[in-house]
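User: Please predict structures.

Assistant: First:
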Amino acid sequence: MPTFSDQDHQRTDYSILQNSPIVLYHRPLTMAADIDALHAEGYRILEVDCSNFGDIPSFAPQLGLILQFWGEWHGGLNAFNDYLSDVRFPDSGCLAVALAHFDALHSNAADFAAGLADIFASSSRYHALFGRRLIMMLQVDECSFHLPPVGACPVIWNRKEFLDKSRT
C-alpha cells in the first residue's frame, strides 16, 4: 500500500488514520457506512459483535479465530501483541477490525478492553512501517463512552459524530 497523497484527504482511511488507528462510533449505521467506504478502498473488514461475549475467556478465542491467529489465544495481552504482529493481511495490505457493542466488553473487562485497543494502536504503527494499514473501529452504545489514550494517542469519535450533539 503506497503512502497517502495530497488528493487522499477525502478517503475514509485517511480521515481515521490521521489521528489514531482506533476510532469510535455511536450509531451502527455510521460505522456501517465507513465499513462500506473502507471496503471500496480495498480493505478486508473483520466484524465482531462484542455483546455476544460476557467475559474474556469467551471473547478471546473468537477474536483469535476471526483474526486467523496461528494458535489459540486465551486472552493474555502479551500473547495478543505477539499474534497481532503476525496477523495476515489481504493482498491490498489493508485490514480493518470492527467491534460492535465494544462498551459491553469494556464494562465487563475495562483494563482488558483498553489494553486490547492500546496493543492494536501500537501494532498498526508497526505494520505501517511495512506499508500495511490496520484500523480498529469501535461501535459503542453509550454516547459518552471514553477510552484513555492508546498508543500514546487519544481515541476520538469519527468525523460524522465528533461533536457531542451529533451522538444524542
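Second:
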Amino acid sequence: MTNETIIVDSGAEFTVTLQSAQGAGYVWQLQAHDGALRLLASGQQAQDKVAQGTSGAPGAPDAPDAPGTPGATSAQFFRWCSLQPGRHFLSFVLKRPWEAQPIETHQVTVEVRQVHAAPQPRQPQV
C-alpha cells in the first residue's frame, strides 16, 4: 500500500496521478471517497520516457518503454475539485476488472483549507 497527502484550498482543483504497466490489463479504480470531493475527469496516458530523456536517444525506435509498447509505463489521472474544508480520503485499487483481489492499493489524504475572503477596505465616514 502507498500513501500520499495533498493540501489544497477549498474550491481548488487537484490531480491524482497513478502509474501502472501498460498492456497487462491492470487499471486503477476508485474504491472509496466522500462527497466533499467531486471527480471532474479521469483518463489514461502513456508516459514517453524518450521525451523525458530517461532512455536512449530521443526518437530512437528501439528505445525501451516507448509509448504504446506492451509493458511500457502509463499513468492514470483523476482530476478532482475540493468542495468543503476538512480532511478527506480517496482510496484506489490496482486490479484487473475481472479479478476480485487488487495487487496494490493507494490511499490519498486530502487536506482542504478554508479560503478566507480578503477584508474589505473601510469606507471613510462623511
